[in-house]
Each structure stands twice: as C-alpha cells, then as structure tokens.
C-alpha cells in the first residue's frame, strides 16, 4: 500500500460512512484529537529525561493514547449505532480516580497556575490546552450531528487530568509551580 492515494487532492477526505470536505467539523474534531495524541507522545518521551519516578504516569499516558484513538474513531463515523461506540463513561470515572490520586501529591494551590516549571510539566500543559481545543471542536460537531456524548465528557475530564499531572510532574521533580501573582485566591481545597 502506498502512502499517497491522491484521493484528497480536491479537498475531500474519507470518513467512515462517506466523504466530507477536509475542514468539516468532524475532521476538525478528530484531527485535533490526533494532534493531542502527538503531544501526549512527546510528553511520554520526556519522562525518560525527567528526574523523578514517573512509571505510573507513563503507563497512564500510554493508556490515554489508546483511548484518544478510540475517541477519534467514535467521531469518524457518519452513522454509527450506540453499541459500536468505544468510549464509555467508565473511562471518565477512571480518569477521575487518577486525578484524585495525583492531586493528593500536589501542594496546595490558591491562585491560577502559569504553565511552566519542568519540561515535562510544560509539555503536559500543552496537552491540556490542545485537549481543551479538541473538546471545543467536539462540542461544535455535536451541535449539528449525533456524537457519542462520552467522548465529550472524556475530553473534558482529560484536560483536568493534564492540569493535575502537570503539577505532579513539577512536584515530583521539586520544581515550584508558577502562580499567576495578579490573581486573587480562587481555589479552595476540599478538606
């Protein structure tokens, strides 16, 4: 099989169940998820260079990459029955458990955090912002076509996960988060 097919030269691409223009909302949504997956791969590559114990994070990020493919697959279908969806709400619940686990390691935060600190933390913040864009693209798609609502919930929770693990990456490397100093105290930790 060749890498190039020439079938997209006129500005259309194939989705499961038909063809659409390359800037169709569906392509924008799963394309942004693909972009996110690339940034997650980059973050995984930084784990080896990081000074800290990140084997649990590596394992979770590898699972997230698989699930991002599932998200893209669910959005690539023009017509699909609910029984064929790959992304389920159980995946969202598991993300919430991971968020709680990692957040327990993080120092208390009261102000907004400026992305940065260690290289790994910075890469995970990039993942967070691209994930938010993927979520926005998925919301746009869902305004005019049926989508798997679990994908939207998964992406929403995943961006929270990236925020928390970016802070964990700094904490494990003993690098302070950078607080937005002009912010009032906006976060209150549940006791």
CATH topology: Hypothetical Protein Ta1238, Chain: A
For CATH, the homologous superfamily is named as Cobalamin adenosyltransferase-like
Gap from first CA to last CA: 58 Å
Order of strands across the main sheet: 1-2
Share in β-strands: 5-15%
CATH architecture descriptor name: Up-down Bundle
Helix content: 55-70%
Q: Tell me the overall shape.
A: globular
Question: What Rg do the Cα atoms give?
Answer: 18 Å
Q: Output the structural class.
A: mainly alpha
Determine and state the CATH class: Mainly Alpha
**Tally of DSSP β-strands:** 4
Average pLDDT reading: 88
- Following the backbone from N to C, one meets helices and strands in this order, namely EEHHHEHHE
Largest sheet: 2 strands, antiparallel
How many domains, as an integer?
1
Low-confidence stretches: none
Summed up, the helix count is 5
